[in-house]
Amino acid sequence: xxxxxxxxxxxxxxxxxxxxxxxxxxxxxxxxxxxxxxxxxxxxxxxxxxxxxxxxxxxxxxxxxxxxxxxxxxxxxxxxxxxxxxxxxxxxxxxxxxxxxxxxxxxxxxxxxxxxxxxxxxxxxxxxxxxxxxxxxxxxxxxxxxxxxxxxxxxxxxxxxxxxxxxxxxxxxxxxxxxxxxxxxxxxxxxxxxxxxxxxxxxxxxxxxxxxxxxxxxxxxxxxxxxxxxxxxxxxxxxxxxxxxxxxxxxxxxxxxxxxxxxxxxxxxxxxxxxxxxxxxxxxxxxxxxxxxxxxxxxxxxxxxxxxxxxxxxxxxxxxxxxxxxxxxxxxxxxxxxxxxxxxxxxxxxxxxxxxxxxxxxxxxxxxxxxxxxxxxxxxxxxx
Length: 384
Hints:
Elements: E1 2-7, H1 13-22, E2 26-31, E3 34-39, H2 41-50, E4 56-65, H3 69-78, E5 90-99, H4 106-125, E6 136-144, E7 147-153, H5 175-184, E8 193-195, H6 202-211, H7 232-243, E9 254-258, H8 261-283, E10 295-298, E11 312-316, H9 326-335, H10 337-342, E12 347-352, H11 357-361, E13 367-370, E14 379-383
Parallel strand pairs: 5-6, 8-9, 8-11, 9-10, 11-12
Antiparallel strand pairs: 1-3, 1-4, 2-3, 4-7, 6-7, 12-14, 13-14
Helix pairs in contact: 2-7, 3-4, 5-6, 6-8
């Protein structure tokens, strides 16, 4: 069994922990932006393939106490790195974080750890120098209260990069955040879902992946594929098992609208890409079934009427000057209450970093959650 660390947006830890349980693994603890859990050999790949909320998955290589650099070097050197890497590996320590520890120089921690890894590999492999001509493997080190945590990146590209989105387009919502918002709303596939500010379609597409039980990692690769223990035959078996869980016969009513015609075109394209990838996954088990795409239309939110008696309206609102100027944002927020009138028996979720949002609506949210996006203090407001 292995200890793995899943990273998430700050505020999404609860949803990530629940997801880990649903995948059949045991959460150990949660800290700001990360959840530790126990998993078997399959979990190294399967957690990357199936997690909708995690931004990255790491394998915990070691945890030890180090109050000086000798102890740090020894702890890093003791790890059997040769069991994980090929001889042409290029190792990068991409991030060091230290907090309330005697070891406070992140740069020195990084260089000392790098030296310990290469010293160990050089001794075991009897190599005076490493060729570093192969794939990159990334290490991350946390030091908190003199306790060192050494992590090996299994994901590579962040897991929000599902593979269905084209580059470009203004300020897209991160896919893992969209998945977190869906969980915060406790949305189920039988409930109609509409995004009135869908942009390039992230929320509806993520809803479709969830509704049809499509693992979000189909169609992309992961860093662990470059590690020496990677077993393609076993991974193929995992892919088939997860493909067999896809539910193309499920019924879901997922829609999105936006006033921007180009955004709607991108949303349709992203939905098509996601569903084509799901179709390829189904082909692994001999199925030619197709997945129903979310429906996207050009519309101003002020003109919308509820298509069903009840449902969930979930949107990432424009909040920055990258999308609109301050006057336009203020006018938009002033008109948001029209949605409450047009969708009288619906539940609402609005995600925004604008601190004046609730005051602009003059309506107290049933619940507020801080789910951070980068350096922004982004809040998720839920209404009924």
